[in-house]
Amino acid sequence: MDHHADRRVCRPTADKLDTRPDVLVARRAAEAWGVLSLAELHACGLSRDAVTTRVRHGHLHRVHRGVFAVGHAALPVEGRFLAAVKACGPDAVLGHMSAAALWGIVAWDDRHPEVTVCGAGTRTRAGLRVHRTTGWRAGEITEHKGIPVTTPARTLLDLAVLFRPRALRRAVRQAQSLKLTSVREIADLIARSRGRPGVARLAATVATGPAPTRSELEDVLLELILRGGLEHPQVNVPLVLDGRRVVPDFRWPSARLVVEADGAAWHDNELARADDAERQALLERHGERVLRVTWQQAVAQPAQTLARLRAAGAPPAWSPGTMQSAAAA
After folding, report:
1. Domain count, the chain
2. Scanning 53, 78, 125, 233, which has the fewest C-beta atoms within 10 Å of its C-beta?
């Protein structure tokens, strides 16, 4: 007798696809930062009454009208962002500060998530900030971490409406340092967006060179230099002197003038002070004049700081008036 005759060929139970609604909900939520819309719950096989029951028992948690967290309400920030987008419908994308935070351009400050919706008649939503746009152009929306979002370039355009020049410059610099966008992409977006809010401010930021500064003090000092009518200096452009690579904070080659922004490291770190002194001696040995500017001088004494720079030979920005003065002299 064949003892194997009665054996049936079948897949192990663990390999069978479990199509029970709660299992489908869990799988789908695992791919969506733990948040599903009411339509998605229905697609998993849950009726409206079944959803109500699971909310009552704590298996689903209402985040926004028609959007639920699965299992628990302690969502990561990405889950909060995706929930906000789902709450505003299929034409919604994450935008403004929320988009900038998702891309890593700014730090998230736990404000209400911001969503941009295409079309008129956008309703307000409790706990959300909803913006409207008449339409999207090429290169303005994408998906990141599974969340519909404005592209980095479009995000910078939206930030240009909100930010002062220094903060906008830092945002542009951060986006570039993360290789999220480029000057060409930003310039292309500006060219397609003439007349829209923020375009002029973003264009001005790019025109001055999205300065690759390395610290907030450098940002403050660069803004002071430009606002004071001085020529845009080279920023963090390396030199090779006696076989050593030296990176001045700011430099005007025509004036052989270097400006170093002295942050906390200059005051508090002995090794940093020694290294900076050695770099300064090397620069001066090669004919460069070196001025050091502290936080106190840049922020509390801007007029005196500009006077020091002018006295040291920092060239003025070009203008017809400047050229006429030079000719008269």
Report:
1. 3
2. 53
| pLDDT for the residue numbered 320 | 44
- Residue pair 121/196 in contact (Cβ under 8 Å)? The answer is no
Which tokens go with 279? 């770099």
Percent of the chain predicted with pLDDT > 90: 53
Contact 213, 235 (CB under 8 A): yes
Q: Are 126 and 76 in contact (CB under 8 A)?
A: no
Q: Report the C-alpha gap between 13 and 277 in whole angstroms.
A: 72
For residues 59-66, give the mean pLDDT. 95
Q: Is the pLDDT of residue 16 over 70?
A: no
Per-residue pLDDT averaged across 264-282, rounded? 68
Question: What are 221's two structure tokens?
Answer: 């000092």
Half-sphere exposure of 175 (CA within 13 A, CB side): 27
Question: H helices of 75-139, where?
Answer: 77-87, 96-103
Tell me if 132 is assigned to some domain. yes
- Give the angle subtended at the CA of 171 by the CAs of 109 and 105, to the nearest 5°: 55
Instruction: Return the DSSP state at 208.
Output: T
H helix and E strand count, the chain: 15, 14
98 and 203 fall within a common domain: yes
Nearest CA among 163, 157, 167 for reference residue 202: 157
